[in-house]
Specification:
The protein is mostly helical and 219 residues long. The chain has one domain (3-205): Fumarate Reductase Cytochrome B subunit (Up-down Bundle), CATH 1.20.950. The chain is 64% helix and 3% strand. The protein contains 9 helices and 2 strands, in the order βαααααααβαα. The longest helix has 31 residues, at 145-175. The radius of gyration is 21 Å and the shape is elongated.
């Protein structure tokens, strides 16, 4: 495919930042589940056993949180909810059956992606603060048992919400063809951008998406 057929959606640093968060999330999720319930204890084998899982989990969490802070700064302005996003949400049935022609024109991210972003903004700091409270090696001795128990409960709830949200995110990324490729290669085709994010396409190319035939070679 010729370079002229592609639009840059993510820079190299954007993608590296995203994948650090993603890999840390998988490792933190697996190690957290291994400690959360005996049914998942076998997952400790991925980390060298129970003691190593308990030791590594909070450090992996720190990496995830730190990387996410950087990612949030990068994508903050693109995830502010706008009137068109609420209209998109009201037409969620059309979204689920791929009736793109009935949906309002959206920018770089749709309302579903924005809601996930803000869920992450809420969940990650919650996991960070509550995790510090009952991190036995360093901070747990400074808090009374009732506070630690409440922190553990909030930690589990935030982690559950995060896991569910990321599972939906992964499903949606696979469902909308070439979305995963955009985060791997950093580029998308003009056709993909016009179809899924027409306002963003117009912003980055200066080309109107209303009744316009795409230029030759940009299908």
């Amino acid at each position: 495919m010729k370079p002229a057929n592609l639009i840059q959606r993510y820079s190299d640093s954007d993608r590296i930042n995203h994948w650090i968060v993603a890999i840390a999330f998988v490792l933190a999720g697996l190690s957290g589940l291994a400690m959360f319930h005996p049914g998942f204890f076998a997952l400790t084998g991925l980390f060298g056993g129970g003691p190593w899982t308990r030791t590594l989990h909070p450090y992996i969490g720190l990496v995830m949180f730190t990387a996410f802070v950087s990612m949030a700064k990068r994508f903050w302005t693109h995830n502010v909810m706008e009137p068109v996003d609420y209209q998109w949400l009201r037409l969620i049935r059309d979204v689920l059956v791929n009736r793109e022609d009935r949906l309002p024109k959206i920018g770089k991210y749709n309302a579903g992606q924005k809601l996930l972003f803000w869920m992450l903004v809420a969940a990650l700091p919650t996991l960070f603060v509550t995790g510090l409270i009952f991190w036995r090696a360093w901070f747990a001795q400074y808090f009374p048992i009732p506070v630690i128990r409440v922190a553990a409960l909030l930690h589990a709830l935030a982690a559950s919400a995060l896991i569910i949200g990321i599972m939906v995110h992964i499903y949606a990324a696979i469902w909308v063809k070439y979305t995963v490729g955009a985060m791997i290669r950093g580029t998308v085709t003009h056709k993909w951008a016009r179809l899924h994010h027409p306002l963003w396409y117009q912003q980055v190319t200066g080309q109107s998406v209303t009744g316009q035939t795409p230029p030759p070679g940009q299908e």
